[in-house]
Amino acid sequence: EMLRSLVGSEMCIRDSDYILNYVKQNLEDDVIMYGAGAGLHFVAEIKNSYLTQSELISAFEQKGIRIFSTEPFWIRKNLCPENQLLFGFSAIPYEKLPGAMKTFSKIIHSL
C-alpha cells in the first residue's frame, strides 16, 4: 500500500512537471498556473481573457477538455475571477498529456 502511494505520488509529480514545463515553454504569455506541488489540480489563469468562466469552460469542452469553475470555492462568489479555472490532470494518462496540452494550447490561442 505504501509503495503504491509512493509510485502514485511520483507519477503525479511527473505529470505536474510536464504540464508546468509545457505552459512555461508554450503559453507563458497567455496562462499562469497556480498551485504547483499542491496535488492533482492547478488553478489556470487565462491572461487577457474577457470571457466568463462559463464561456471558457464551453470552449474547452467543445474540444474534449473538461475544466472546472473555481466559483464553488469562493465564499463571496462576486469576487471570483472570471479568467481563473480549475485544471485537473489526474485522469489524463501520461502518454496522452502531450496531445492534451497541445489541444489546451490551441484553445487558448483561439480565444
Sequence-ordered SSE layout with sheet pairings:
Elements: H1 2-26, E1 31-34, E2 41-46, H2 53-61, E3 68-69, E4 84-88, H3 97-110
Antiparallel strand pairs: 1-2, 2-4, 3-4
**Average pLDDT rating:** 88
Which range best describes the helical content: under 10%, 10-25%, 25-40%, 40-55%, 55-70% or over 70%? 40-55%
C-alpha-based Rg, rounded: 14 Å
Note the run of SSEs as H and E.
HEEHEEH
**Based on the structure, what is the oligomeric state of the protein chains?**
single chain
How much strand content do the residues show? 15-25%
What kind of sheet is the major sheet?
Answer: 4 strands, antiparallel
In short:
With 111 residues, the protein is α+β, with helices and mostly antiparallel strands. 43% of the residues lie in helices and 15% in strands. It has a four-stranded antiparallel beta sheet, with helices on one face.
Structural features, described:
This protein has 111 residues and is α+β, with helices and mostly antiparallel strands. Helix content is 43%, strand content 15%. It has helices spanning 2-26, 53-61, 97-110, and strands at 31-34, 41-46, 68-69, 84-88. The longest helix has 25 residues, at 2-26. It is globular and about 35 Å long.
